[in-house]
Amino acid sequence: MFQALLVLNLAHNTIDRIDLTDASVTTVVRDAGPVPDGIAYDRVAGRIYWTTMGAPDVDPALPVDEDNVDFSPKNGSVESAALDGTDRRQVLPAGALTTGKQLDADFVAGQLYWSDREGRRVSRTALDGTGLTDLVVNTSTGDKAEECVGVAVDPAGNALYWTQKGPAKGGRGRIFRANLVMPEGQTAPTRTDIEVLWEHLPEPIDLWLDTANHYLYWTDRGAEPAGNTLNRAPIPARGESGGAPEILARGFAEAIGLAVDIEAGFAYVTDLGGSVRAVALDGSSDSVIAKFEDQPLTGIVGVQ
Q1: Which of 28, 99, 179, 298 keeps 20 to 30 A from 115, CA to CA?
Q2: Is 118 left (phi over 0), alpha (psi -120 to 50) or beta?
Q3: For the sheet containing 14-19, what is the strand order?
Q4: What is the per-residue pLDDT across 213-229, written as a single tens digit (0 to 9) for each?
Q5: Which residues pair with 122 in a beta bridge?
């Protein structure tokens, strides 16, 4: 079971640790880089990996909100440090990707996977930053429908999952699946094995795979009543669409990060309102375990 949670704090660009025994909070990394978003933890090596979105262009004449912040400059990165914040390393330097979003990993194979939102792609690299490879590359549609956000990998099942949230509060979100191993002779922009599992979702963000019980969990920051929720649904068989999701929790302030502890029976969700909520998978409880006032939170991962 998780002993602690690591959360990415956008107000201070830090990585903060929440001890689950007493809810105490300590800062592990004080300068995680501009706008950290996705995080993964290698418990064998005792290392943290995370993505940054990079510094955006902001029009000083306009209010600072999502519509007036431009993340299209290519200055995202992938970073790493020991669990205590020491031994800081740069896996991929700023500019190697556009906007690093959710991060997942296959630590057995030594691979990191992430969605690149403004880059409109899903990519991977080795833990040392070698072998940077695009797995999915979308053509720009001009309406954000092609932007990738969440990602989850199932190496044993040869499956790659990702979200495309669509326009803000647009009700056009989708969840996709493709082979984790690229079909022979195909390329990231032209591959033909991509399936749309769910569509017309409010605004799906981060994913979490429960391969043992064949469930996919995801957060959604879209319009209520189906948005600002934590969802799960059975993983559909190949060639089939996903069924109607079960909503496990509602009322988030822009739900983003997700970590699920199957053994403990809890899902942990962060939101842009600065809350970390623990949601019992059996529906028996839903509580705020930490509140960061006026400090938006993005990625979250459990420490075992």
Answers
A1: 28
A2: alpha
A3: 25-29, 14-19, 4-9, 297-303
A4: 999 999 999 999 999 99
A5: 115, 136
The whole-angstrom separation of Cα 56 and Cα 136 is 23
CA distances from 155 to 110, 181, 191 (A): 12, 9, 19
Distance of alpha carbon 22 from alpha carbon 290, whole angstroms: 10
The residue written with tokens 């995202």 in the block is: 76
Say how far apart CA 42 and CA 293 lie, in whole Å.
Answer: 29
Count CB atoms within 10 A of the CB of residue 62.
10
pLDDT in tens, 52-92: 999 999 877 776 666 678 999 999 999 999 999 999 999 99
Kindly state the tokens that stand for 288: 């705020």
Q: 132 and 123 in contact (C-beta within 8 Å)?
A: yes
Q: Which residue has the tokens 């950290």?
A: 36
Whether the CA torsion 99, 157, 283, 203 is positive or negative: it is positive
State the amino acid at position 197 in one-letter form: L
Is 132 within 8 Å of 116 (Cβ atoms)? no
SS3 108: coil
Residue whose entry in the numeric block shows the structure tokens 């790493």: 80
**Could you tell me the pTM of the whole model?**
0.97
Both tokens of 22, joined, read 């007493």
